[in-house]
Amino acid sequence: MKIALWWARRDLRLADNQALSTALARARQVIPVFVLDPAVLNSPEAGPKRVAFLMGGLRKLDQELRARGSRLVVRHGDPLGELAALLAECNADAIFAEEGFSPYARQRDARVAECLPLYLTGAPVVHPPGTVMKSDGSPYVVFTPFSHKWKARPLPQIEDILPAPQWIPTPPEVEGPTVPEEASLPSTVPFPREGKHRDYAPSVQPSSLERETDPFPPGEAEAHRRLGAFARVDDPPVHRYAEMRDRPDLDATSRLSPYLRFGMISARQAMADALAARQAAPDAGARQGAETWLTELIWREFYTHILYHFPHVLEDSFRANLRTIGWEDDETAFAAWCEGCTGYPIVDAAMRQLKQTGWMHNRARMITASFLVKDLLINWRWGERFFMQHLIDGDPAANNGGWQWVAGTGTDAAPYFRIFNPTSQGKKHDPQGAYVRHWVSELARVPPRFIHQPWKMPPEVGASAGCIIGQDYPAPIVDHARARERALAAYARAREAQ
Q1: Alpha-carbon distance 217 to 255, whole Å?
Q2: What is the pLDDT at residue 415?
């Protein structure tokens, strides 16, 4: 081929990019292009922080391309129309792109492939959907056997990772607008109830917390720096991951999820480093740490497979016998949860971390989700949508899978009767209250013995700490013990109704 387009989507990197490498091998000149798709940017789930992270990643990618004799051509509009125009403009022969597996990505690519020469190669996962199947050809719906079959397939090693190209020959005459500094997004979005008929609750306006600095610098270089600091250094943190990963008060995780979400580093690269760290482990504990991180990466792939084979999970519970739960959907309680004002410190700290940074520790995600669904008896889809609006790493497959796991409605779900106690979870995973104190400033001076149940402080202790419950910090909006019984009864009724 004389000229080919490399259509970047969720692979904003140059290293280990199979679509780009294929384009460079097949064509004499390659034009990198990104299409700002209104269907995605104007979606109710297009969170401003995630879009800003994307735009920053595009600017970084353009810088790396310019250092290699190329540049990123940015177009705005329907991908089919924009790509067709660009093909005609530069007389290109083909389009190369990494395959996508969400319902929208599959529909979009099918439309493009019907009209244009689109070649899909590479994937945002190590083993694409359809390659990890049961012996009868059906998809796995339970994680453990899926992970066994997944591990039995060839796994990427460090030597398999493709280096970034040193030079990308690009025609000089191709023009395109620069990456915009900001994207135009709706200021408020609706929260859907369960099922196909969407009965909307009122939107929650962004708070002042959202104006704080974003702690995730975008770009491929930052992704590699983080992976290196987590898995490649002497005595790497990954070797302690198994024992420390549930501590939101510690910096004990990779914080790579936003970079994996946009392909600023490949899943193959992360997997290869996990396997190398496991191989280099000096003892059983260190090996378990690397193995545990590898398992978390496989969970990400599992949820991608689930969404591919069962796309209806984005609209409804996977388990049919839990589609009729009598949700209470208290809008005032939902707003308190969104703002981090529930009166339960670990929940409020996590929600404020989310709104301020666009990220939340995974243990905290489970705690806050359980509180919304089980303690407040609010439809899990309200929380799923809110997370997508705020998470920089918001991914339809992983986010949906996580929420359905907590709600007990998913494929490989937690038992419906598992209900996290927010107080005991706080005591166990934030033992000194450092996480709570960092994110909930009202509780900064509360003594350790009361940090996870400040409503038990004697009035004189609260006064000394500058935190009067009901005045400076809210009293619990729900009694956990009673809420637990209410949730169990609601789930039981739904199961019995089938």
Answers
A1: 11
A2: 81
pLDDT the model gives residue 85: 95
Task: Specify the pTM.
Answer: 0.93
User: Distance (Å, rounded) from C-alpha 216 to C-alpha 378?
Assistant: 31
Tell me phi and psi for residue 11, to 5 degrees: -140, 60
8 Å CB contact between 149 and 48? no
Annotated catalytic residue within 327, 337, 359, 382: 327
pLDDT band at 173 (very low <50, low <70, confident <90, very high): confident
Report pLDDT for 214: 58
Q: Check if the beta carbon of residue 278 is closer than 8 Å to that of residue 163.
A: no
Which residues contact residue 91 at a Cβ distance below 8 angstroms, ignoring those fewer than 6 apart? Answer: 2, 3
Task: Check if 327 is active-site.
Answer: yes
Cα separation, 203 vs 190, in Å, equals 5
Which tokens belong to 414?
Answer: 């937690």
Residue 178's pLDDT is what?
Answer: 65
Q: What is the pLDDT of residues 245-283, one digit of tens each?
A: 999 999 999 999 999 999 999 999 999 999 999 999 999
Say which of 210, 321, 362, 421 is annotated catalytic.
362
φ and ψ at residue 469, rounded to 5 degrees: -65, 135
Q: Give me the mean pLDDT over the 35-44 stretch.
A: 93
Q: What domains can be seen in the chain, in order of their start residue?
A: 3-123 (3.40.50.620), 125-159+218-309 (1.25.40.80), 320-493 (1.10.579.10)
Q: Which residues pair with 6 in a beta bridge?
A: 32, 96
Per the residue annotation, which of 296, 315, 328, 339 is the catalytic one? Answer: 296
